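Thread amino acids onto this structure.
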């Protein structure tokens, strides 16, 4: 089995690599990246035809490598799957679908993000499936900047601070970015903390191992 990963930031590479090494070490992994995508969506505020077209180039490159599935790793671009999936026979996996499906078993969800554009995409997914769900969202873009500058301690502290702010108001906390997954082990709280990389890896491999044609 061969899986392609589509990245918009370098910070997502190691978390998804580690997840697949743990879940399915036999899988061949190919990485495709365009770090210009995130600044584009931050400038435009939402997906635009030019962003979707640029994203599709990565999908086409992955398909040229004869992959069995394509795993997105940046939550800000998850909605692009709604547009592009009908154009391809190969399955495009959202970065967070498995994690959000787990979160849907709770009524009050805390959403922590370090990218401004992420909450809208995640909340849209949650509300479409469970309109009555309650979502409390916090964003700290400074934390993401710290991570890009190599200041992991400062990044992790921002995440832990946001968790402490939300934990008494919700039933579960979702860490939206792959780059936050490692912080979960540092957080001591009474409620579950959900992260996407390993859950996404399991969902991806399970789906592709299925004999059923889901597309």
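Threaded sequence (215 positions):
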């Amino acid at each position: 089995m061969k899986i392609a990963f589509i990245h918009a930031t370098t910070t997502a590479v190691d978390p998804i690599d580690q997840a697949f090494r743990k879940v399915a070490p036999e899988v061949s992994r190919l990485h495709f990246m365009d770090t210009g995508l995130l600044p584009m969506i931050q400038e435009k505020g939402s997906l635009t035809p030019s962003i979707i077209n640029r994203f599709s180039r990565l999908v086409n490159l992955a398909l040229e490598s004869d992959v069995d599935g394509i795993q997105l790793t940046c939550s800000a671009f998850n909605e692009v799957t709604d547009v592009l999936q009908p154009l391809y026979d190969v399955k495009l996996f959202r970065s967070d679908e498995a994690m959000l499906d787990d979160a849907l078993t709770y009524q009050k969800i805390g959403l922590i993000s370090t990218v401004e554009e992420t909450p809208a995409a995640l909340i849209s997914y949650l509300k479409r499936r469970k309109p009555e769900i309650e979502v409390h969202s916090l964003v700290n873009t400074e934390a993401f900047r710290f991570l890009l500058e190599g200041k992991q301690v400062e990044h992790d502290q921002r995440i832990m601070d946001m968790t402490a702010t939300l934990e008494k108001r919700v039933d579960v906390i979702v860490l939206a970015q792959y780059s936050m997954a490692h912080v979960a082990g540092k957080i001591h709280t009474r409620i579950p903390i959900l992260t996407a990389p390993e859950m996404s890896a399991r969902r991806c491999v399970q789906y592709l191992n299925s004999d059923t044609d889901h597309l």
